[in-house]
Amino acid sequence: MTVLFRCRVEKPLLKKVNSVTQRLGTDTGEVFRIFLAEIARTGRVPVRLALEPDETALSPWEQRAETLESFYDESKAW
């Protein structure tokens, strides 16, 4: 028995996903079913979901402060 699963997705996102799945020779629904099967099989989500600091997200002032602080690192012998 199957169940109809519905969710809302922004059109630009769905358009990009459809383009990728078409190039893979499948469709978005099938890829989603594969995704769900992998979660059921492994007990884990097959993508990394974590909040980690993104070093590239530092503002120029934060980057500058980080560089300046590195000059005062006590582990360096002068």
Regions with little confidence, pLDDT below 50 for 5+ residues = none
Overall strand count = 0
- Rg, nearest Å: 22 Å
Question: What gap, in angstroms, lies between the N and C termini?
Answer: 73 Å
State which percent range the strand residues make up.
Answer: under 5%
- The coarse silhouette is elongated
Main structural class: mainly alpha
Oligomeric category: single chain
What does this entry look like structurally?
The relative contact order is 0.06. This protein is elongated. The protein has helices at 11-23, 28-42, 60-71. The chain has 78 residues and is mostly helical. It is 51% helix and 0% strand. It has a domain at 9-47.
Brief summary:
This protein is an all-alpha fold and 78 residues long.
Which SSEs are present, and which pair or pack?
Layout: H1 11-23, H2 28-42, H3 60-71
Question: Which structural traits does this protein have?
Answer:
78 residues, 51% helix
